[in-house]
Amino acid sequence: MKFVVENDSFLRLIEVVLDPSAPKERIDAFAHFCKHDTPDFAAWCDGIRAQAQTIYPADVRLVDSQAELLANAADASVIVVEELTVGEKEIAAAGDSLKFVQKYGFTTRNIDGAACNAACVKVLTIRRRANISTAEQGLTLMLALARQLTQNANLISVEQLKKAGYQPTTYDRSHTPNGNWARIPNMVTLYRKQLGIVGLGEIGRELALRALALGMRIVYTQRTRLPPDVEQQYQATYRSLDELLGASDFVSLHLPRNPATIGFIGRRELSIVKPGAFLINVSQPNLVEREALRQALGSGRLGGYGLDTFYEEPGNADDPLIKFPNVVVTPHLGASTREAQDKAGDAIADMVQLALRGEFVPFAVMLAAAEAHDALFSFDYRARTAALEVGLPLLPPGQPAMPVIRFADDPERARIRRWCSLVTQGGAYAHPSHNWFVSAAHTEADVERTLAATEHAFTVVAAEG
Predict the structure, then answer these.
(1) From CA 146, how far away is CA 48, in angstroms rounded?
(2) Reported pTM
(3) Torsion-angle region of residue 398: left (phi > 0), alpha (psi -120 to 50) or beta?
(4) Bridge-based pairing state of the strands 428-431 and 434-437
(5) pLDDT tens per residue, range 74-104
(6) 444 or 215: whose pLDDT is higher?
(7) Less crowded by CB within 10 Å, the N or C end of the chain?
(8) Which domains are present in the chain?
(9) Which residue did the predictor score with more confidence, 224 or 342?
(10) Does the annotation count 412 as an active-site position?
């Protein structure tokens, strides 16, 4: 079996796991990369191979450009892309051997769905754990700055607090509460604050979902405004960059690294931010001009700065930027939780095998109507109550609450359990006009309880095709 894979730093893992001819230096590099969380990298790879017997071994071709993708597409069974495009030319170059295109992410603007559908090529997506982890890192930095955690953590005695510059006291408990006896000023809540997201791509959307759960208001800016249904899904309002900077309490940057984005936030932009706003950067350090940032922090115009990945790696402990008490810098941790790394390879391998065996693939963007007929049943509005009872999340008002999938008869129950086990690992199924998600925090039992609690009729959803 032949895979053509975009040469992304994470996607190289497909070559390491599935291609016996992968360079030893690459295998050793990944073993070194994973050593702190996965000391026996070889055993981890063997475990994935054991689960992926129908696709191992494979011929994996890594490509860096559109031209290389075209040149290597012949006889490919699978094409895996992040930014490179797949359309009529690429499908024709692959020929009849091409079974599906795997997007390393869940937005498919770089894949020609109509061309894939016409060629009976399935399009699969994946909700990347690395993106989820990075969004969580951004939210962590927001909370750390808002509550000044790095300044006051573990300060529990009067002596410690006074040494840190605070003026702790005692209150008359017969009259007042005892909250903040340390007298730490200027703490902020995130509730009802405005979060401005610069670049509402996959990581920006993951952050928006989490910010919405905290009651924040979402605005965004980017080169191309999103369709109304996507804005509604994330309850996000489009603004120009200047409008976003001038009115947002928190600004989070989510832009790619390229010459056009270096210094994207400079002296002019920092001069118009809302006074006291917090700036978050879990993308690329060079998006923000270094000297302009120090001046904005020194003047007090910027309320704080959270950064994951410093300007140099490793950095200098004497760098003036980290001397500011309202700056929190972490050493490139965003996408690097063990869970994010563990799922980078086995989720794609699992979906590939399902597709090749002709089974229902929960992450397919387009399904034939025959597949949908006996497999997918939509979630009725009345199931909101049942979803709330088991703590499942709700989508914005006016949309179906929870993406519950029900099968037609008892023999199909095994397939719903299969679906649940995949999706609760962090995946997503996307229909052309719906986005259905099950949180990784929810188990098969959660979904089963929701099904049992709903007593209404389900409506068949047939995908296009």
Answers:
(1) 41
(2) 0.77
(3) left
(4) antiparallel
(5) 999 999 999 999 999 999 999 999 998 989 8
(6) 215
(7) C
(8) 2-125 (3.40.50.720), 131-148+186-330 (3.40.50.720), 367-465 (no CATH)
(9) 224
(10) no
Contact (CB, 8 A) for 279 and 305: yes
- Tokens coding 455: 């007593």
Say which of 332, 339, 448, 464 is annotated catalytic.
332
Active site residue 442: no
**pLDDT of res. 229:** 86
Indicate which residue of 25, 312, 313, 455 is catalytic: 313
Classify residue 295 as exposed, middle or buried by CB count within 10 Å of its CB (0-12, 13-18, 19+). Answer: middle
Q: In which residue are the tokens 């690329």 written?
A: 284
134 with 335: CB under 8 angstroms? yes
